[in-house]
């Protein structure tokens, strides 16, 4: 993918990246943990964003690049690049009140760490030209949650996407502007 981008868009810096992969193998108790399924969860949920970050990071603007023009229209993208990776609230250790879903929780917890660590790298390489964050989309009506639709208030996928985009477009690249942290669809921080 990176080779193809480099070939087709050699001079174009990456302005907005959203890496989304996520799967859930439900485990209610330790006895339900299956090694192959757990490995699958870690591969898709943790290694996936890690390798996407590896191959996409060279496309982000460096500190000497000029800022992007502020976009017009309904969604105003800022002048810096945004690299966002999908975490999940259940990956938050401090928010964990109900347990279960061991592999999903553990693999998604790593996304908070990857986003923070990547953002620290970008602070040096890109300064205020690029930020990294993690995201929680809310509980969204997708195939992913199909088993849990009944009796729940769910966000429509387009609504969740729209709200997340507005939240990340509003973050600033300075140290206190929200970079390196996890944000939900309401613009509230989800602590790791
Ligand atoms: N829905 C929710 O309520 C909710 C809540 C919290 C967090 N999330 C997170 O939000 C993200 C999107 O979830 P969703 O609800 O939109 O579910 P979804 O429709 O099942 O989307 C899952 C995503 O993961 C990708 N994926 C799955 N297996 C993969 C693999 N082996 N290799 C590469 N990519 C793979 C899929 O790619 P393809 O489309 O190419 O198959 C798809 O983009 C996930 O990271 C999920 O953990 C969702």
UniProtKB/TrEMBL annotation:
GO molecular function: oxidoreductase activity
SUPFAM superfamilies, per database record: NAD(P)-binding Rossmann-fold domains
InterPro entries, per the entry: Fungal_SecMetab_SDRs, NAD(P)-bd_dom_sf
Any GO CC annotation of this UniProt entry: cytoplasm
Listed name of the protein: C-factor
Protein species of origin: Penicillium subrubescens
Family to which this protein belongs: Belongs to the short-chain dehydrogenases/reductases (SDR) family.
Taxonomic lineage from the root: Eukaryota, Fungi, Dikarya, Ascomycota, Pezizomycotina
